[in-house]
TrEMBL record:
Pathway this chain belongs to: Cofactor biosynthesis; ubiquinone biosynthesis
NCBIfam families according to UniProt: diverge_rpsU
Comp. bias regions, Low complexity: 37-52
Annotated Gene3D superfamilies: Tetracycline Repressor, domain 2
GO function term, MF aspect, one: lipid binding
GO CC terms: mitochondrial inner membrane
Chain intervals for the UniProt region annotation (Disordered): 32-66
Organism lineage: Eukaryota, Metazoa, Ecdysozoa, Arthropoda, Hexapoda
Family membership: Belongs to the COQ9 family.
Boundaries of every COQ9 C-terminal domain copy: 182-252
Major localization class: mitochondrion
Organism: Macrosiphum euphorbiae
InterPro entries, alphabetized: COQ9_C, COQ9_HTH, Ubiq_biosynth_COQ9
Name of protein: Ubiquinone biosynthesis protein
């Protein structure tokens, strides 16, 4: 086993969050064939959205910065109330009250429940990214078996972060599938798969950049839905599902390495399938 070390040069990724499906699948957005694709607030260490910080539109100055900090603190405090109130305005109000703010402060949020779910998703992505960067999760070698094991463990680790909120997660999925929330939800999903692909050693600059991320995103979302219905001990059925799906994905990737036209065809077919699985079938 060996560790893939990140370049010591810090890079700043200054680009807006994805506003449509195509922009969420843009390779090498930070420049260079070895740079880590990233999105969000441009943390200099490569962490998207700065440890769960709320995404902004780039006009964040003065009072806006203070408001964002207050909102982040409220969302952090609100997570412990999700099992009781779900992803709702009442949950955010309870989080605000705990910090000494009036419960009416939920007026700061356009869609309190959805913004809480988006915050949790982003913060969980950051937690996984730290585990990958710090080497807590063993990184793969050139072996396909090691790559399969790494991807399986990475997906399992991220899915387990949902465990405290499994009963309430279907509500979060419904909120994040709304047209007004889905672009940021998709951006968060692509940040997740970008991180995993990067630490798996992916430096592709061809159509495999797309197929790998679409494939991994589809596996993650399918596994998430499987987990919500899993009654097996220790979610054993879900982990077997993840392993099989990853194995098939790695086999397909091997085939695409020697067939560029097949790779293009797979990208075209996979985009429609992935959008359906991700709940992105509305007309835009």
């Amino acid at each position: 086993m060996c560790n893939i070390k990140m370049n010591n040069d810090k890079e700043t990724c200054n680009f807006a969050r994805a506003n449509n499906f195509r922009s969420a699948f843009r390779p090498n957005v930070c420049g260079g064939s070895t740079s880590r694709p990233c999105s969000g607030s441009g943390d200099p260490n490569g962490n998207p959205n700065g440890s769960g910080q709320l995404a902004t539109d780039g006009n964040d100055v003065g009072g806006d910065s203070y408001e964002k900090d207050v909102k982040t603190k409220i969302l952090q405090s609100s997570l412990q109330h999700v099992p009781r109130h779900g992803w709702s305005r009442d949950t955010v109000a309870a989080g605000a009250e705990e910090l000494g703010y009036p419960d009416t402060v939920h007026g700061l949020f356009r869609d309190p429940g959805a913004e809480l779910a988006l915050y949790f998703y982003s913060a969980s992505n950051d937690s996984l990214s730290r585990l990958l960067r710090d080497g807590t999760l063993t990184l793969p070698t050139e072996s396909k078996a090691e790559l399969t094991a790494f991807l399986t463990v990475a997906i399992k680790t991220r899915l387990l972060m949902l465990q405290p909120y499994l009963n309430q997660w279907p509500q979060a999925i419904a909120l994040l599938s709304k047209p007004s929330n889905a672009p940021q939800a998709l951006s968060n999903l692509m940040t997740l798969v970008n991180d995993v692909c990067y630490y798996a050693g992916d430096r592709s600059i061809d159509t495999r950049w797309y197929t790998r991320r679409i494939g991994l995103a589809t596996i993650y979302k399918s596994s998430e839905l499987h987990l919500l219905q899993d009654g097996s001990q220790g979610y054993d059925d879900t982990w077997k599902f993840v392993r099989r799906a990853v194995e098939e994905c790695v086999k397909l990737d091997t085939m695409l390495e020697s067939n560029a036209q097949l790779a293009k065809d797979v990208v075209t077919a996979s985009v429609s399938t992935a959008k359906n699985i991700l709940g992105l079938t509305w007309n835009r």
